[in-house]
Amino acid sequence: MEDLGYTVFSQVLNAKDFGLPQNRERIYIIGFLGKTTFSFPKPLGKETRLGDILEEKIDSKYTISDKLWAGHQRRKKMHEEKGNGFGYSMFNKNSKYTSTISARYYKDGSEILIDQGKNNPRKLTPREAARLQGFPDSFQISVSDCQAYKQFGNSVAVPVITALAKEIEKSLKNMKDIDNSEIKSVDVNKIKKDSIAKVLKSNKDYKLSTSISL
User: Fold this and answer.
1) What's the pTM value of the predicted model, to 2 decimals?
2) Residues 82 and 67 grouped into a single domain
3) Alpha-carbon distance values, 135 to 74, 100, 117, 157, 170 (Å)
């Protein structure tokens, strides 16, 4: 990108540093076509609490079944015996933050289960999933629960993007035009071929079953 005249900046930011009760690290890459400076937003230093985004009245359909709960416990025990940390994660209203919600959350909710005391734990509701990503309650959820979980699991954290946008605006005001002579000619087809060659070279046992056309 720099060869094409872009000024590029990158950094890992975590949603929990921007007011959301979710441990969600993502790398953000910002590119400007021209010369400018850019500073990534700083953590807010704000305490987070899961209970702040949980709903009060929960439909019983979000409580996981006995069969699913037994399966979660069995798999967690199996992984613990193997010495790894895989398995479900449980949180309550006093938890500072949850683990990362993903697009697969609709399957069994294992990465974020909400403790319900003596009852089986439950999944987040779609509205809670939306709040976990920073969407306001005015945001209309017009799809099924399954699709909502997929969409929110794939989403970026809204407060992080908002903070980035403010910094981008500052940088755009200080943009300097670039000299076209500084932009190098890039052979896209050569980049494709070189990339494929590196993949094939790194795996000598790889057998190309179909021809690759560029």
Assistant:
1) 0.79
2) yes
3) 34, 16, 28, 8, 24
